[in-house]
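<instruction>
Derive structure tokens from the sequence
<entry> Chain with its tokenised backbone below:
===
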Amino acid sequence: EHDKAIEHQIKAMFLEESSGDFDHYTNASLELGRIYLHARQYDNAEKILVRALEKIRKAGDPYWEAKGNYYLAQAKRGQGDMQAATTLLDSARQLAEKIGARDLIELISVQ
């Protein structure tokens, strides 16, 4: 049911973009990227995640950047780009450790 999940998450992302705050929009965007990953649509995941990470970096939010880098690493791994995946995972881990985000550190450590 990935197609339905993707359709609903796209709607949620656009609703959050127009009426939500930064955190809700960012979470909706990263969740869409995660759903694309589970559907093995790595190119679509990358597009969404790169766009989200541009906004996240402009806002200077290390938590969301770490989470976005983690998901983007998964997309790169799915595309076969292990070097980029490793670099992104290292960056995600460093950011998560710097801010003490235990949930992200645990998520990233599973890899």
Remarks:
- The mean pLDDT is 93.
- DSSP finds six helices and no strands in the chain.
- The two ends are 25 Å apart (CA to CA).
